[in-house]
Amino acid sequence: MSQRFRIDGAAQLVPEDRTGIPALAGRSGTYALMPTAPDLLVFSRMPPEGGSIPTPRVVLSGDAGGFPLSDLIAFLSQSRWSGVVRVHTPGGERSLMIREGEVRGATSEEPADRLGEVLVRLGYVDRAQVEAVLREQSPSKIGRALVEKGVLQAHDLFKCVTHQVSEIFHAIVLCREGAFFLIDQPLDEKTGHSIQLSTQSLLMDSIRKIDELAHFRKRIPHGRMYVARKRPSDGKLEEDEDRVLAMLDGRRTVLELGHAARLSEFDVTKVVFRLLEGGFAGLSDKPVGAPAAVVPEKAAAQRARPVARTVAPVDARPVARVFNFIFREIRDEVSRQGMDHEFIAAANAALSGQALSSSPVLEGLAFAADGSLPEGRLMESFDKHRAQLGSEPLASFRQALSDVMFFLLFQAGELLESRADEDLARRVKELLATLEAP
């Protein structure tokens, strides 16, 4: 846990309790205060003496309003970095867990980002079902509890968890206030192995939201603006617009409206923008005040899309064989719990409904009793759909099988004891490493 200090009226740096004092041990010397954002203090020792501390440690920090987090995350992806990206904003703290450049998990203090809210928002459960489970279980176990009660299918839970992580990722990329920290720390296998999302795909999807938000910021410069109702609904508004309009009293900011309506900052900003455009609402920089002047924000620059290029013929069979070995390994571990038949049935249901991957390569395939996919049909499908797999078909093929693998691991994690689950994750990691071997 970070030690807390406060700056008093005499500009003195004071620890909030005595436990904060050891944090400064070994840091004696003269420090220069660097000019930074209001939410960040940076001191640099003069002259520098060097040295290091063990992990976890902050290796990079900065102003989220002065440096595009999308560029930082793109660099981390390309360099295959592992660790945590943490962002502190007025809307709360969010974090991304990254292993070898790919997103492996996310956390958020924002109420709209909670799994229960995501499940309700996507229509998989209703609020009464979520509240009933929360009376019996902690929020961290809500997904598993809903599956055990038969309210939710395992592949639908996986889809919702993936959506939740994606939404937190987009919120971080869209952040234009606060401070960010890059933390060098190992990720334990239990929290990091059950999902993997392509960072590059997430970044491409974020481009649209970045451009949209830049458009919204022309009228709503930040989330701390107050919103007041100017006229009632005309009966033609969408459900979210009517809901937010009913909350407008001039005493809530855009961020506070998002919390109350259980919407992400991007979504509530979009709703408020529509209400402003329709003349239903007005903005102010003070509670119940006259609408404040809005300073337009520069529009986000368009990112260049990758240019397709031809590639030499490749043999996908070695990739298929390694993943089939992994699939069988997962199935064998589950079979020790006597749950292999249910496990394969759930996996095939998810595969047939395209809940695991949108890749055409997997269409019409099903897992055999031993947990593998039929290699011959898989190769035929790869050859048939290769033209649809982009400029790097083998990478797209591997990503599709990786998506399947992470669902199977996610599903197995709901059935296995912690030690068996962690050991399985270690063996899978070793098998994946054989694909990187020269």
TrEMBL record:
InterPro entries: PatA-like_N, T2SS_E_N_sf. Signal peptide: none annotated. Pfam families: DUF4388. Residues 62-137, 141-213 form the PatA-like N-terminal domain. PANTHER family: DOMAIN GTPASE-ACTIVATING PROTEIN, PUTATIVE-RELATED-RELATED (PTHR36304), DUF4388 DOMAIN-CONTAINING PROTEIN (PTHR36304:SF4). This is DUF4388 domain-containing protein. It comes from Corallococcus praedator. The lineage of its organism: Bacteria, Pseudomonadati, Myxococcota, Myxococcia, Myxococcales.
